[in-house]
Amino acid sequence: MTDKPQPAVGTVCFRGEDVLMIRRGTKPLAGDWSLPGGRIEFGERAEAAALRELREETGVTARLVGLVDVVDAIFRSRTSGDVTRHYLLFDYAAVWVSGEPVAGDDASHAEWIPPGRLAELALWADTRRVIEAARGMVRS
Predict the structure, then answer these.
(1) Is the CB of residue 50 less than 8 Å from the CB of residue 90?
(2) What is the DSSP annotation of 68-116?
(3) What is residue 28's predicted lDDT score, i.e. its pLDDT?
(4) What three-state secondary structure class fits 67?
(5) Burial class (CB in 10 A: 0-12, 13-18, 19+), 124
(6) What is the pLDDT of residue 48?
(7) Distance CA 43, CA 33 (A)
(8) Alpha-carbon dihedral of residues 113, 118, 123, 129, nearest 10 degrees?
(9) What single DSSP character describes residue 40?
(10) Three-state SS for 41?
(11) Averaged in consecutive runs of 10 residues, what is the pLDDT profile of the chain (140 residues)?
């Protein structure tokens, strides 16, 4: 554990109306649906990290459209309520260029999810909000 926020990225990648989602293979939130993403490496630009994490976790390459939002992901101990992790997430909108989803790195599953099915998934409220904001950026 560190006492400082950790910079991380998420990529909202679209192929048509479908959004690329992963099931997390590691803690925190192992097994939950999420956007592909992860920590920014020392000396790495956030945009490069977004594309790298997308490729490592899904095998997909994309073109970034822009920064959607910066979100605090703060995790607390279930017993004490103390903060255990704090990520500062830079979420980017992207458009698919090539590749088919294959889970890799921290992901246990990767899949294109159509809008109707996305509505059925249990997602963090900020994830759903960021996806819809990114969808608006991609359509513009």
Answers:
(1) yes
(2) EEEEEEEEE-TTT--EEEEEEEEEEEEEEEE------TTEEEEEEE-HH
(3) 67
(4) strand
(5) middle
(6) 98
(7) 29
(8) 100
(9) P
(10) coil
(11) 88 98 84 94 98 97 98 92 94 98 89 95 93 93
Domain ranges of the chain: 6-139
Superfamily the domain 6-139 falls into: Nucleoside Triphosphate Pyrophosphohydrolase (3.90.79.10)
- 42: exposed, middle or buried (Cβ count in 10 Å: 0-12, 13-18, 19+): exposed
Residue 139: what pLDDT? 86
For the record, the structure tokens of 1 come out as: 């554990």
Q: Compute the distance between CA of residue 60 and CA of residue 100 in angstroms, rounded to an integer.
A: 6
DSSP string, 6-36: EEEEEEEEEETTEEEEEEE-SSSSTTSEE-S
